[in-house]
Each structure stands twice: as C-alpha cells, then as structure tokens.
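Recap from last week: sequence in, structure out.
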Amino acid sequence: EQSFQAKAQQEKKQAIDLAKRQGWKTKITTKDGRLLELQKVVNGKPIYYTTFNVDAAKSTRTDHLHNGGSLGLNLMGQNMTGHVWDGGIARASHQEYDGAGGNNRYSVGDGSSSLNFHAAHVTGTIIAAGIDAAAKGMAPHASAVGHDWNSDTSEATTAAANGMLVSNHSYGFAARNQ
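Predicted structure tokens:
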C-alpha cells in the first residue's frame, strides 16, 4: 500500500510539474461530459484517467438475480458494500441512495469532496434503490463507499485488506496531444 501510494504521488507530482512547463491542462471536461484528469507522463505524453460506463446495468443482466428474476435467487445486494473509484464522488443525499430519507447507504472513503456526475451515475448503477424505476441499480439493497481516483491502487489495496469484496473502476486511460 505504501509503495503504491508513494509511486502514485510521485508520478502525479512529476506530471503536474511538467504540465505547468508544457501548458497542459490537468483536468479536462469534454463536450460529451467525460472527465479527464492527469495522472502521469509516459514517454513524454500526458496520461489521463477518463470516465467510462456505457450501459453497464443492462449488459450485466442483474435483473435475473433480483426478486422475481428468472433465476429465483432474490439477490439484491443485501449486507454488501461496493467501493467506487471515479473522477470524484457522488452526492450522498441523492434520493436513490436513500439520502433524502435519512437512511443513507453511501459514504465517502477517502475524504474527497469534489462531486462528479459520472461517480453519481456509476454509484447509481450499482446501488440505486429504484425510486425512479428506470434508475434501479444492480444491487439496490447494498451500500457504497466513494473515492476519487487519485491514489486508487493504494486505497483499493487498503480496502481489500479491510474486507472489501467488490469495487468499480469504470474509467480508463487517455493520452492526449496537447
């Protein structure tokens, strides 16, 4: 964990220092709403994390696991906690996380405070209660812990050592010519 943390911090610091000298942006929001954030430089090229999560709920067919699903399993995420690393965190008071009703199933795991729509979308894909039926998540009775994507490897290592079984990292890398 400590070596992953040190490596991530060193790579990011070097990338930000080079970005300042080169005039590169460290955070970018694209026209289609994706977020990119500089993480490191490889072979002189900036490497960004970027958000992805297209039709994940539909493609996994988790409705077959739910109460009334074709498998007869009644698996709704009971007593499970998923961790979400993304370009920021979700808004804890979202109605689909039961935030408006005071029974909040969402918390922040790394002290992050930067809200991000993609993090909210991914968290909803996993735990949305289905107050809006079209928004029902894969595990609507589960909880989630949100983290921003900085230091993701060390944070995930720590979370796994503390019992984490499920995590989502629906982002990837993007190299950009500046």
